[in-house]
Write a structure and sequence with these properties.
It is a single chain. With about 210 residues, this protein is mainly alpha-helical. It has 2 domains: about 5-70, no CATH class; about 70-200, no CATH class. The chain contains 8 helices and 5 strands, in the order βββααββαααααα. The strands form 2 sheets. It has a 3-stranded antiparallel β-sheet. Strands 4-5 form a two-stranded antiparallel sheet. β2 and β3 (about 25-30) form a beta hairpin. α3 (about 75-85) crosses α6 (about 135-155) and α6 (about 135-155) packs antiparallel against α7. The longest helix has 20 residues, at about 115-130.
Length: about 210
């Protein structure tokens, strides 16, 4: 993997605030996009703004501007399902229940840290698949019903059972979208976290947050 030479980190060490220098007006690039495209060696063939001319090797503008949906502010597939697709408010009781579970239980108990790593690494990939799904409305309703049940289980204090439910739901989505190999690779590599990188208090937001060196 290599850094895209056109991606500018304007936040320096203390943040991940990236801009694409290829656009007519520099546009903010979320971490999800940076990880999935700008870090990729073949970014020229995947960038929605520029493509590489096969004959000359030069960069040729492909679209007048980056589609706004590409740079969505939501990395979390749960937020995407609940707020973007189903149109529920960000403070929906189910959303708040899941946040409380994350903040008060999952982040504070080491035995749950792997589920947070999985969510932050696999979640953005699942989110992308859901948004492309022609039946995304139906898919979102099905996922949300499962999330409601998970919150009910959490409210009963059955935390292990709730995490098992979430894992089963996630693995089902992995299989439905043909992401088994991607999942296995990331799982076997500690969900892309190197030693010392994982920050429990920052985990569970649908994107990886690295510990500053």
């Amino acid at each position: 993997m290599s850094w895209c030479e056109h991606c500018e980190d304007s936040g320096k060490k203390l943040s991940t605030c990236y801009y694409c220098k290829l656009t007519d007006e520099k546009q903010y690039i979320p971490q999800e996009y940076v990880d999935n495209l700008c870090y990729n060696d073949l970014y020229q063939s995947r960038c929605p703004v520029f493509k590489k001319n096969k004959e000359t090797g030069s960069l040729v503008k492909d679209f007048p501007e980056i589609p706004s949906d590409t740079f969505s502010t939501s990395f979390c597939f749960i937020t995407t399902v609940t707020c973007e697709i189903l149109g529920k408010p960000d403070d929906d009781p189910t959303m708040n229940g899941l946040r409380g579970f994350r903040d008060n239980i999952l982040q504070k108990d080491e035995k749950y840290h792997d589920i947070l790593k999985m969510y932050d690494t696999i979640g953005p990939i699942i989110r992308g698949e859901i948004k492309k799904d022609v039946d995304k409305d139906k898919k979102a309703e099905s996922i949300f019903a499962k999330l409601e049940r998970i919150v009910d289980i959490v409210n009963n204090g059955e935390y292990d059972r709730a995490t098992r439910r979430y894992i089963m739901m996630t693995l089902r989505l992995v299989c439905e979208y043909g992401l088994q190999e991607t999942y296995r690779t990331k799982r076997d590599n500690n969900f892309d976290y190197k030693e010392g990188e994982f920050i429990p208090s920052k985990a569970g937001h649908g994107k990886k947050v690295y510990k500053n060196s």
